[in-house]
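Weekly sync, protein design subgroup
Attendees: M.S., D.O., the rotation student, P.L. (late)

Item 1: inverse folding check
M.S. brought a backbone from last month's batch and wanted to see whether the design step gives back something sensible before we order anything. D.O. pointed out we never logged the input encoding, so this time it goes straight into the notes. Structure tokens as presented (231 positions):
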């Protein structure tokens, strides 16, 4: 087995994904993914212990909430101590941050089109490259439409985006205002460094706006938000 598989069984849990319900019902893309994964598995002597088909609906608070089958594939692979295998990297995600989160699951991923020698760092690079290529193609297409005289953009969508941004900012300000008195009390007790404040907030069970743990950087951002507002 390749060195990046050391310690894992010659097995894998397969994961296939399409992005819309219509694609899922028609089988568009799924059969091609299955064929690629199965051909790769046969060539590498890998036993597919499970096959998980995802039709991502867009519902849920984050990407993993929208992908219950990916969660099941991860759980199966973790229990069997084997990788999750996909046909192409974009079947996991085009978002490098989402892929980073998957790497934290401590389950190895094998991308059939990249082969077994692509380590996690390479997956990050491929994701970033693919994202950049998509951005370049999108900009080129928009430039071509503009050159052809087409009017780009949706005024209502732009207005909605501005309102959403303002609402998000207001919510962030309100959250910070609620947490700031706790931070001031921690500082008054003699804990003044960013690290000390973060540890104190975590010890008190206070969560960040995203529901996570506090770090020096998040405490710094909180204090910076009010640096020019307090007398």
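Designed sequence read out in the meeting:
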């Amino acid at each position: 087995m390749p060195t990046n598989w050391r310690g894992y069984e010659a097995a894998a849990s397969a994961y296939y994904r399409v992005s819309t319900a219509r694609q899922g019902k028609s089988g568009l893309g799924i059969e091609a993914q299955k064929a690629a994964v199965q051909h790769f598995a046969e060539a590498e002597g890998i036993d597919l212990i499970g096959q998980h088909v995802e039709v991502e609906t867009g519902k849920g608070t984050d990407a993993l909430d929208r992908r219950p089958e990916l969660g099941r594939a991860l759980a199966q692979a973790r229990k069997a101590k084997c990788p999750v295998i996909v046909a192409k990297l974009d079947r996991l995600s085009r978002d490098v941050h989402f892929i980073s989160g998957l790497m934290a699951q401590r389950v190895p991923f094998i991308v059939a089109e990249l082969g077994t020698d692509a380590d996690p760092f390479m997956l990050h690079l491929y994701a970033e490259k693919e994202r950049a290529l998509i951005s370049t193609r999108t900009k080129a297409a928009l430039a071509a439409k503009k050159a052809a005289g087409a009017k780009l953009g949706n005024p209502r969508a732009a207005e909605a985006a501005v309102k959403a941004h303002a609402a998000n900012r207001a919510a962030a300000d309100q959250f910070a205002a609620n947490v700031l008195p706790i931070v001031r009390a921690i500082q008054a007790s003699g804990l003044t460094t960013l690290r000390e404040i973060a540890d104190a907030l975590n010890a008190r069970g206070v969560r960040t706006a995203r529901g996570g743990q506090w770090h020096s950087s998040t405490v710094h951002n909180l204090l910076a938000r009010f640096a020019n507002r307090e007398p």
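Discussion: The two ends are 64 Å apart (CA to CA). Helices lie at 21-26, 30-44, 68-80, 96-103, 120-147, 155-188, 194-203, 216-225.
Action: P.L. to compare against the previous round before Friday.
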